[in-house]
Amino acid sequence: MVGNLKKIKTMEMRRISIKFLFIFLLASTMFSCEDNRMNDIAEDKIYLIKSGLQDAQIFNFGTYQYELAVCKSGIGSQEANLKLSINSELLASYNAENNSQYEILPENCFTLETNELNISDKEASGKFSILFNTTEITKLSSQGKSFALPLSVVSVNKIEVLPENADVVLIPVLSEPYIAFAEPGLSASPLAISLNDPESFNVPVTIQTNYKSKTKLDFKIEVDTQELAKYNEANNANYLLLPENAYELFPGEYSLSAGQKSKDLNVSIIRKNLLNKPDLYLFGEYILPLRITEVSENSIDPQAETLLLHISCSAYKLSRSIWEVIDWNSCICEEAKYVDLNRTPDKLLDDDVATFWGSKWDSPKPMPYYFLIDMKDTKNVTKIGLRKPDNIYRGNQKKGYFEISNDLNTWTKIGDWEITSNGTRSHVFEVTPSQGRYLRFVLTEAFTYVNNTIGPNSGAQMDLSELYVWGVD
Fold first, then answer.
1. Is the pLDDT of residue 462 over 90?
2. So what's the pLDDT on residue 41?
3. Cα–Cα nearest to 80, from 37, 41, 128, 130
4. Which of 82, 170, 291, 367 has the fewest CB atoms within 10 Å, i.e. is most exposed?
5. Which pLDDT belongs to residue 266?
6. Domain architecture of the chain: domains with CATH
7. How many CB atoms lie within 10 A of CB 386?
8. What is the SS3 assignment for 193?
9. CB-based contacts of 206: which residues, under 8 Å, 6+ apart?
């Protein structure tokens, strides 16, 4: 019994010894790791985020507060007591090395508002503050000289300032604080609207400032018809003014909150007042000319104060797959030896430029020639196009006209057409927008005739690949 008790005590003592040994080893390892970690991290150092020669972007507010950022990196065990000072030798050295002629910015143009800075041991950065007098800086432009502000960061306590990142030469770059359209001028691409669009929909227009305002900015945007007239004249264009009932502006949106640099404004396009099936089709290339006319503070960018919002209300090329040429008065197929060429009037509608119609060839009929086309339903027609065969000598059409009808009895002329050169293969002609089911295409003149002295009455040899129509179904 006594022997058993001795064995139990001996085993207990061993367990306690092992436990203390484990704790000792664990503590040693932890202290060893901590020491290694600290040894790998460098002592605290100070440096400018941006050093050397650089532009200082300032805005012409009268006075402008510019902040120069300083960083502290390292173990984080030391505070930094720093001073910012003017360093004329720095500027002289820069001028000598770069063959430049910068002069120190006059004292009335700036104030070192914060030239002493304390960064605590736990902080990683701080900022010096420089107050620029933009009114006085503006006056310097008349002197024809270049000015700069050479500054150095110096340590007051024992913390190290990295020498390669301790100096900066600031060149004040003065900008006017503007409000502007983000994408001024004529829209990069037109907003195309169609019958598939909603009756009205909103288009975002972005307004922006080149600075952060400390207060709310109110502004005004108006439609400027003179701007459209000026653009058309300067660019030999003929854009139309978007009708008043085809858009809506929202003046209640015309403000930027303090600190807000941009905002999307809404312009509502009222499609139904341009395209409204079945009876309203105001086709055309429209412009809504917008101008920023007022802002509650500072200025409007003169280069970005206008926006020409381009609205394209265009017809589309109509499908001709079921259309039919129901009458004509000249075809090469009328001559037996040319029947196999298959150059018949229906080729004008087959969407294949390699096939084409040819007029009566060996014994041409007197002009005019015509084609009567059944579009199978009432269409609103706005443009008509002709496509000649690729062979440069083919074609020969010169003049004619288009007519439209709903009943094959009453015909309305919707446009004359004329081609100035037989060499051009494709032609598109604007016509008076008109509704009808039947289209008559008439050819009255050619470039050459069977007998040029007699003219159209002697007839002409000609070919045509396609007749296209633009409009709305």
1. yes
2. 59
3. 128
4. 291
5. 97
6. 45-175 (2.60.40.1740), 178-314 (2.60.40.1740), 324-472 (2.60.120.260)
7. 23
8. coil
9. 181, 182, 183, 262, 263, 264, 265
